[in-house]
Amino acid sequence: MSAWMNEIIEYIRRYFNHSPLLYLYIAALLFLLFRGKRIRRMVVYPSMILTVVVMNPICYGYIWIRLIEYAFWRMLWMIPVIPVIGCAVIELGTILHKKWGALVTVSIFVVCMVVFGTNVYQNTTWYQKGNNVYKLPYASVIVAQTILGLDEQPVVLAPSGLYCYLRQYSGDIKLLYGRDAETYILPLQDTDLIQLHAMIEDNTGTSKELCELAKEHNAEFIVLPDSHTFSEIGQYGYDFVGWMEGYCLYQVKTAE
Questions:
Q1: Is the Cβ–Cβ distance between 177 and 163 less than 8 Å?
Q2: Do residues 224 and 230 touch, judged by C-beta distance below 8 A?
Q3: Contact, 219 vs 210, CB < 8 A?
Q4: With contact defined as beta carbons under 8 Å apart, do 84 and 45 qualify?
Q5: Is pLDDT of 144 > 90?
């Protein structure tokens, strides 16, 4: 259990990233705890229950990491940090009977949030200026536009570097699999699709196996990294369309 608690503490440390919000949240709860029965019932008790349930090492070990092992940090979104702090600021303002006093209190809070907050856009390792209106990698835009130019509702087999972006570009693009291939939320159950994903990501198997499995699942297009080693795909039912931004695009041959 101590190991689970240490993991929770590490998640909290990374989630708040040395921000004072966690301490303000605790202080706000303590302040509101003495602000009347109605506040306790509507704000304090629900917030404390959520906090205890989310950060409980027993729940973490037996429930949360089994359900959402890939993203426990999203559970921390359930903790109403900002609403509780905001409620405490408003309640503090009501203590001051003069309007200017309440205005000063709220203003000080806003200034503190700005001063002690972090401008994420100044961190160039996280964000960069978008180069296209889609806010998607250029390669995915080119591949998606090419595919949609050939078929209005294509069925596509794509590698992990593309399948999320293709789906975001257009809902008309149907993918054989997406993040579910990475056991995300609902893992793949189809053994053929699991095999296809492994072949593309690990660059293993034969061109014949790849093409036959793709055709069995009605994949009209196959997108592969240009470093792939699947040679002579054209012999197994797919024509080479072209190279585009680090990817090779193939389309199923039409009956003559």
A1: yes
A2: yes
A3: no
A4: no
A5: yes
Task: Report the pLDDT value the prediction gives residue 136, as an integer from 0 to 100.
Answer: 85
Cα radius of gyration rounded to whole Å, the chain: 26
Supply the pLDDT for residue 22: 87
Three-state SS across the chain? CHHHHHHHHHHHHHHHCCCCHHHHHHHHHHHHHCCCHHHHHHHHHHHHHHHHHHHCHHHHHHHHHHHCHHHHHHHHHHCCHHHHHHHHHHHHHHHCCCHHHHHHHHHHHHHHHHHHCCCHHHCCCCCCCCCCCCCCCHHHHHHHHHHHHHCCCCEEECCCCCHHHHHHHCCCCEECCCHHHHCCCCCCCCHHHHHHHHHHHHCCCCHHHHHHHHHHCCCCEEEEECCCCCCCHHHHCEEEEEEECCEEEEEECCCC
159-202 tens-digit pLDDT:
988 888 998 898 899 998 887 767 666 677 888 888 988 999 89
Q: Tokens for 243?
A: 């190279």
- What pLDDT is attached to residue 220? 94
The two structure tokens encoding residue 240:
């080479």
Q: Which residues 6+ apart lie within 8 Å of 79 measured at CB?
A: 25, 47, 50, 51, 54, 55
Note the pTM of the prediction, 2 decimals.
0.58
**Separation between Cα atoms, residue 181 and residue 190, nearest integer Å:** 10
**Residue 105's Cα: distance from chain center in Å?**
36
Instruction: Quote the tokens at residue 141.
Output: 């835009």
Identify any residues that bridge with 223 across adjacent strands, giving them in sequence order: 249
